[in-house]
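Hey, resending since the last one bounced:
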Amino acid sequence: MKHKFIGLFFLLFMICALGNSFTVNADTPDQPVVVTKTVKAGKTFKVHKVLKLKKSALKQYNVTPDNTDIAAVTSKNAVTGVKKGTTSIRVSSQQSGETYAVITVKVKNSYTKAQLRLMSSIIYSEAGAECYAGKKAVGIIIMNRVKSQSFPNTVEDVIYQPGQFGPAKNGALNKALSLYDNNQLSKNCIKAAKSVLNGDVNVSYKNKTINMSGYLFFSGYVNGARLQIQNHQFK
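The structure tokens again:
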């Protein structure tokens, strides 16, 4: 009888021990959650929605991007695509440092080949002799017009709107398009075009970063200009 009691006690002890050894914190899985998310440059997604968590639950985690040149994380744990490429967002416990999840972020361009060709060429036509900031500023003006209700809503229609861009009328844009097609267009013009088409509205000039999201006009002289970059004024 004594032996049976000892055996039963040992069996209960082992069951309890095994039960405890397999108890897992629901917030920390044995293996990190792995998710892939595709987003266009300039667009944003919420981390908690991708991981199917309550927004409040994410407060106990750190959300860290591996490469902010491709995807950046805001203070509210939203991920914004910056430029084409693939990177990772790591979600780790603030308490233990353990990785809860890894989000593989694939960023796609927000433009078509035709849009890149046209934007690069108009930037070259209007600001080919300007510095990179000046080139980019011209592209930002065009994209701001696309977003504005006061102008056409496509890149092509904005550029070819009557009375707006001289190169579209005098043949200079056609020459630039030909240069683009023959791989002879300035690389900086193409770089600027990619940046603005992906939603970048900032220029760096004279050690300052300038947000140009509210600018709609540029020329050699603009009445009431708020900014000048080399030979162009912007408003």
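Residues 41 and 109 are 5 Å apart (CA to CA).

Sorry for the duplicate.
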